[in-house]
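Handout, page 2. Input:
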Amino acid sequence: MTAPALILASASPRRRELIARLGIEPAGISAADIDETPRKLEDPRAYAGRMAREKALAVTSPDAFVLAGDTVVACGRRILPKAEDEATARRCLELLSGRRHRVLSAVALKAPDGTLRERLSETVVRFKQLSAEEVAAYLAGGEWHGKAGGYAIQGSAEGLIAWIGGSHSGVVGLPLFETRALLKAAGFPLG
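Output:
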């Protein structure tokens, strides 16, 4: 009997690297094209879950599992944007400097029979108090581009983080403990 295929509903190279840590090579990559605009008054937890769910449901692949994820950086009830320009990244870093924030990483798995399973990882992260020089140096490196909250924990920002409570892989982009649990519950073969 052939093992079922898994489609990763994400073009993120980080998610592909993370899923490989579970010994899985996706049979395909299919980035879901959905509207990622938060709804009015939508809290970060609900938003992260909705994004992962909508991405999984948007990808059609008969006879395959579809795995989708979404990572949201939240400061209070505020959902921080993916930094597409240096000014946005600077605002995010200045807001996060010296304080705790939450990283919500949702994962959704659609089984071949259409069953949808979901999990959410919540991690608390605290940056050190950042000096203007540290912010400028981090921005100059460019790791912030396209990253929620304007930083990538798997890069040089890790040296600016004083404390983390929760899932490091969730902050990177795919909570591996929750992902493994979803796959096992759905009957996907894992070692």
